Amino acid sequence: MNSPRFYCREALSPGAHVELPEPVARHAVRVLRLPPGAAMVLFDGRGGQYPATIERIERDRVYAELGAWEEVECESPLAITLVQALQAGDKMDFTIQKAVELGVRDIVPVESRRSVLKLSGERAAKRVAHWQGVAASACEQCGRNQVPLVAPLEKLESWLARPTQAPLRLMLAPDAEDTLLSIPPAKEVQLLIGAEGGLDPQEMIAARQSGFRAVRMGPRVLRTETAGLAALAVLQALWGDLREG
């Protein structure tokens, strides 16, 4: 049985004695009911991991001793940035969780004209922090030691207006002529996915002007929560680590 894995935001070091962050300690003690002496794995998102042992438990406070740093990685050689228009309900949580499992490198949430969910100010900042936590939890589950960054929320038009050197920019469109199979391989991809109802026509024009190329995913129209994940899986199978086994 594999040891439970936990993300610690503060930098870790070999042989250190650390107090686990409150959410991690609560999960370890109250949910998993780990006793003193239990083994676990800790990572700080900078790469690699540390085997650790629970030294002692004081009510809800848990202290652990770290072992030697282990160079363990399962990052894809394909660097994918998912540019996802805001989705309603719990769809954003689901999309971010599964995108991390599929090896996405970065996530950029954007507000598009057809986004049902509207966020600004403190609400937007809190939601982005929540999504960053979702990404970290997904890394704990799937074995990744580098946590993808969830960028601050901004309007799609503003993001598209930024200069970029991304070698390949793709957006899904049901009526596109090209498919992913017709695109030459790349090592870095920005993938733009619309919200419910897809991208607005003006947004499509702006995306094309900023270098995005429209591609389709077969003959069926996919929901926003399906489209991005399906495209990520195909990209990893074509150019990433899914083709390796």
From TrEMBL:
UniProt EC number = 2.1.1.193
Q: Which InterPro entries match?
A: Alpha/beta_knot_MTases, PUA-like_sf, RsmE, RsmE_MTase_dom, RsmE_PUA-like, tRNA_m1G_MTases_N
Q: Where is the Ribosomal RNA small subunit methyltransferase E PUA-like domain?
A: 21-66
Limits of the Ribosomal RNA small subunit methyltransferase E methyltransferase domain: 75-236
Family note: Belongs to the RNA methyltransferase RsmE family.
Q: Which PANTHER family match?
A: 16S RRNA (URACIL(1498)-N(3))-METHYLTRANSFERASE, RIBOSOMAL RNA SMALL SUBUNIT METHYLTRANSFERASE E
* Protein name as it appears in the record: Ribosomal RNA small subunit methyltransferase E
- Source species of the chain: Dechloromonas hankyongensis
Q: What is the lineage of its organism?
A: Bacteria, Pseudomonadati, Pseudomonadota, Betaproteobacteria, Rhodocyclales
